[in-house]
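Q: What would this chain look like folded?
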Amino acid sequence: MPTKADAPVLPGARAIARYVRTSPTKARRMINLVRGLPAKEALTVLQFAPQAASEPVYKVLASAIANAENNERLDPDSLLVSEAYVDDGPTLKRFRPRAQGRAYRIRKRTCHITIAVESVPPATSRRPKAGTAKAAPAAKKATAAKATAAEATVTEATAAEETAAEATVTEVDAVPAKKASKAAKAAATEPTDEPKTEEPKTEEPKAEEPKAEEPKAEEPKAEEPKKAAKKAPAKKATTEKAKAAAEEETE
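A: My prediction, written as structure tokens:
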């Protein structure tokens, strides 16, 4: 069974910061952010982290990258954070005086921060090789050509089936149409003695529109006294004629 010692050792470097005046839990929170990231990306994450514990972790990571670059002659861009952990350091015990002679304990914790970086070989990089990159478009073109050919055959088969179905439908429809035309001609030649029944026409009552009455113009009443004045002399003349006739009769 292979063990850890049998695995190939990758070139790298490490840095350790001892007796850092930070709680181990606060430092582990920052370490968990950068474990397994590329070295440059981990530095950026720690640079903009708002926690106070990010500052000592940033310094340790920068020291590990410098050790790999200067001591091992490694490329900083190929480095990866392979190990990152925090150990507990000694706790400084202090006390705060309280009422009635009592003392409350104060624990000032420390920790040891360890970060190791290693150089990733170019064979394990995610970039595809030049040969595979050129072969991929050719394979895609071949699959696309096969797919288009299959689609063309399917469309031709469906078109042939549709045309055959339409031809059969038209033949079936033509036979009843011929029979119907013959029956219509026979009916037209036979004389029909049945009297035609006329349907009574229903006259719809016309709605009378209301006639608008024109207002009569009233004649001025100023002519009435003139008529009365003309009638008065006529009455006098009749009375005079009556008197003259009466006198003649008496004579």
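Residues 139-184 form one domain.
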